[in-house]
């Protein structure tokens, strides 16, 4: 049928253009709320850490002793805290970070780290302050881009009107 597919393509394109502006705020706010900002805070009691995301920073000797298991020059490992067993932390490792800042992803392999090889243990927590700040910056950026794309001011090709001097 001639024109049938073209009409459908036009309708789909026109409908998409109407829906896009209406959904943009919903999509942006949903994305910002689902992402959020996190920070690592020091932990004193490991009893409540089970199944939580943590970061273990290793001592210098810890990096050397664990090098065969986690790689050379690793400064910290992040992952899910599985427990404290016989004077050692047990982690399902997600990421290891070296002293130069490079990160390596892991697949949840279990690593046992003796307490004596750990310089700090920190828990990953949601940060409402950082999230609000990042959301505000994103909203300002989106608002600025929207205003810039919509334009405002003179249209291209228009000639500004300059009044002649009054001669006073």
Task: Write structural notes for this entry.
Strands 1, 2, 3, 4, 5, 6 and 7 form a 7-stranded antiparallel sheet that branches. The mean pLDDT is 80. β3 and β4 form a beta hairpin. This protein is α+β, with helices and mostly antiparallel strands and 168 residues long. It is built from 3 helices and 7 strands; from the N terminus they run αββαβββββα. The chain has a domain at 38-126: SH3 type barrels (Roll), CATH 2.30.30.
Summarize the structure.
The protein has helices at 4-35, 60-70, 128-150, and strands at 38-42, 53-58, 74-85, 88-98, 103-105, 110-114, 118-126.
Give structural attributes.
about 30% strand; SH3 type barrels; single chain; 3 helices; 7-stranded antiparallel beta sheet; alpha+beta; about 170 residues
């Amino acid at each position: 049928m001639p024109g049938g597919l073209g009409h459908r393509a036009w309708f789909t394109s026109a409908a998409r253009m109407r829906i896009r502006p209406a959904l943009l705020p919903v999509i942006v706010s949903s994305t910002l709320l689902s992402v959020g900002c996190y920070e690592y805070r020091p932990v004193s009691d490991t009893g409540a850490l089970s199944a939580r995301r943590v970061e273990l920073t290793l001592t210098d000797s810890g990096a050397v002793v664990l090098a065969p298991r986690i790689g050379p020059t690793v400064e910290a490992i992040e992952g899910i805290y599985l427990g404290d067993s016989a004077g050692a932390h047990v982690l399902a490792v997600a990421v290891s970070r070296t002293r130069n800042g490079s990160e390596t992803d892991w697949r949840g392999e279990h690593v046992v780290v003796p307490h004596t090889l750990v310089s700090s243990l920190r828990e990953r927590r949601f940060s409402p302050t950082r999230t609000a700040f990042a959301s505000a910056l994103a909203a300002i950026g989106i608002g600025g881009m929207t205003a810039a794309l919509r334009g405002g001011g003179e249209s291209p090709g228009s000639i500004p009107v300059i009044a002649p001097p009054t001669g006073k």
